[in-house]
Amino acid sequence: MRVISYKERMIKKKHIFYCEDCGDKEAIKFCKEHGIELESNSFDGKARPIIFTDLKGFDKEALNDVLAYVKDGVVVVVRKLSDFGTGAKSREIQNQIKAKGGEVLVPEKVLQKRGPKFKGEIPADRVEWAKALYNNKANSRQFVCDAIHEKTGVKLTRHQLKKRFEP
Questions:
Q1: Rounded Cα–Cα distance for residues 167 and 160 (Å)
Q2: What is the fold, at CATH topology level, of the domain defined by 6-105?
Q3: Which residues, at least 6 apart from 133, have a Cβ–Cβ distance to it below 8 Å?
Q4: How far apart are CA 102 and CA 75, in angstroms?
Q5: Band of the pLDDT at 111, cuts 50, 70, 90?
Q6: Is the distance from CB of 73 to CB of 13 less than 8 angstroms?
Q7: Cβ atoms within 10 A of the Cβ of 98, count?
Q8: pLDDT band at 122, cuts 50/70/90?
Q9: What angle (nearest 5°) sits at the alpha carbon of residue 135, between those of residues 121 and 137?
């Protein structure tokens, strides 16, 4: 039995996008961020991705269109499962899509690294001094940051101090 990779599945399947309360540009941007190629239609000679959107709080007419469009091999891409509705309604729609041979894809969030990066490295001869300064409870964390910056030129935040010097 051959295992099919995610990229191979992306190539063989037709992807359509459904969201509640977002525009076409947001949908296209979301798909590009997650590496999803949407199926295109060309009724007028211009290839456009197939995107279905509904306004929040109104009847979900586009969702009915999605359910009518789904067939074997079609993947419905959504930002979050709550775009289908809440609780049992969402599960019911997912089951309807699966019953027609389709799939539901909710891409994982792309997490960015948070916080400022270390601006330089504390010289080896100053690490013990900085650690002793940090472990002295009489010193405030901001005082330690300022002292390290003054002596070594390395700018650290209080959080970076904690990550470096606490076990």
A1: 13
A2: Rossmann fold (3.40.50)
A3: 139, 144, 147, 148
A4: 6
A5: low
A6: yes
A7: 12
A8: confident
A9: 135
**Which of the four pLDDT bands, split at 50, 70 and 90, describes residue 73?**
confident
Helix 158-165 to helix 141-152 angle (10° resolution) is 90
Contacts made by residues 162-167, CB under 8 angstroms, sequence distance 24+: 165/130, 165/131, 165/134, 165/135
Average pLDDT over residues 92-98: 90
Check residue 40 and give left, alpha or beta (phi > 0: left; psi -120 to 50: alpha).
Answer: beta
Q: What is the mean pLDDT of residues 69-83?
A: 84
- Tell me the pLDDT band of 99, cut-offs 50, 70 and 90: very high
Task: Answer positive or negative: Cα dihedral of 28, 31, 35, 39.
Answer: negative
Strands 48-49 and 40-41: antiparallel
The total number of residues shown for the chain amounts to: 167
Domain boundaries, the chain: 6-105, 124-165
12 pLDDT band, cuts 50/70/90, is low
Task: Provide the terminal-to-terminal Cα distance of the chain, rounded to the nearest Å.
Answer: 47
Q: 124, 160, 126: which is closest to 141 by C-alpha?
A: 160
